[in-house]
Amino acid sequence: MTDTTAMWTPGWHENSPEQDDLVLAFAGSSILKPADSWFLRWGGPEMGDSRPEALSLGHWNDKPVFVTMLPDTGLPGMQTLSLRDAMLTRPDAPAALLSTGFQVWQWWQDHRFCGRCGERTGAHPRERARWCGRCNIPWYPRIAPCIITVIRDGDRFLLARSARVTRNFYSLIAGFVEPGESLEQTVEREVMEETGLEVTNIRYQSSQPWPFPHQLMAGFFADYKAGELRLQEDELADAGWFTVDDHPPIPGQTTIAGQLINAMKAEIRGQSMARSDA
């Protein structure tokens, strides 16, 4: 997997792109991608005469990078790649940048009018926000907190296949945080609702922004406590207990699901080796 983390310096400014600045271009929920890069060049031939609105995302290898929306140009050498496919199947994808770019662009379009008074909003002069001059309030990008968790029972862990996803892999139990809940309470509730299982020893591991549509995924490990699998059919098509050497395909390492599963496998292997050496 290509490590793109150090290449991107997140940031924001209100300047417009200049000639040859980097542009992350979306067509709907797909990325317009040149064959050898993830970016177009502002003013390059692939953009034609188009100079759409563009938002700053910071710098990529010290060069300004922006996000915008373009029609699918269909030019030779350009491919249209869905954002979900890029995040799930492309180990070379700059996942954090793609996620941020899509979320920022959707927020910018969705908050063109004030949610309180209906007045048209404009750019905030000092920060990434839309500003309502009538109400004197900013509208910041929306972030929806979610949990995602690996459930362990001894040397086994639980994997599940979503009822809404057609890709041939199994993933983890996940869900949105409800008002008044802690993250740990959300883990307990989502696991019970979707699987009928009780869990204990819930422990935080890591997090990842996820742009479907504007989530922050908080990843946890949890231990099985009690119960029999009873699937919520509108959420899960299948679920089961698997071992580190015998499990169905899982999401890639660009996703927090893949990272959590592999971290759990490493933990189980390490503890099994420690028992063998004892």
Short description:
This protein is α+β, with helices and mostly antiparallel strands. It is 21% helix and 35% strand.
Helix content: 10-25%
Classification by helices and strands: alpha+beta
Distance between the termini: 35 Å
CATH architecture term of the largest domain: Alpha-Beta Complex
Strand content: 25-35%
Radius of gyration: 21 Å
- The total count of helices amounts to 4
Give a quick account of the main beta sheet: strands, pairing sense, barrel closure.
Answer: 7 strands, mixed
CATH class of the largest domain: Alpha Beta
Q: Mean pLDDT across all residues, rounded?
A: 91
The CATH topology of the largest domain, please? Answer: Nucleoside Triphosphate Pyrophosphohydrolase
Overall morphology = globular
Query: What is the string of SSEs from the N terminus onward?
Result: EEEEEEEHHEEEEEEHEEEH
Count of folded domains: 2
The beta-strand count equals: 16
Query: Runs with pLDDT <50, length 5+?
Result: none
Question: Which features would summarize this protein structure in a list?
Answer:
278 residues; alpha+beta; Nucleoside Triphosphate Pyrophosphohydrolase; 2 domains; 7-stranded mixed beta sheet; 6-stranded mixed beta sheet; 16 strands; 21% helix; 35% strand
Describe this structure in words.
By secondary structure, the chain is α+β, with helices and mostly antiparallel strands. Helix content is 21%, strand content 35%. The strands form three sheets. Strands 1, 2, 3, 4, 5, 6 and 7 form a seven-stranded mixed sheet that branches. Strands 11, 12, 13, 14, 15 and 16 form a six-stranded mixed sheet that branches. A hairpin with a 6-residue loop joins strand 8 and strand 9 (130-132). The protein is globular and about 65 Å long.
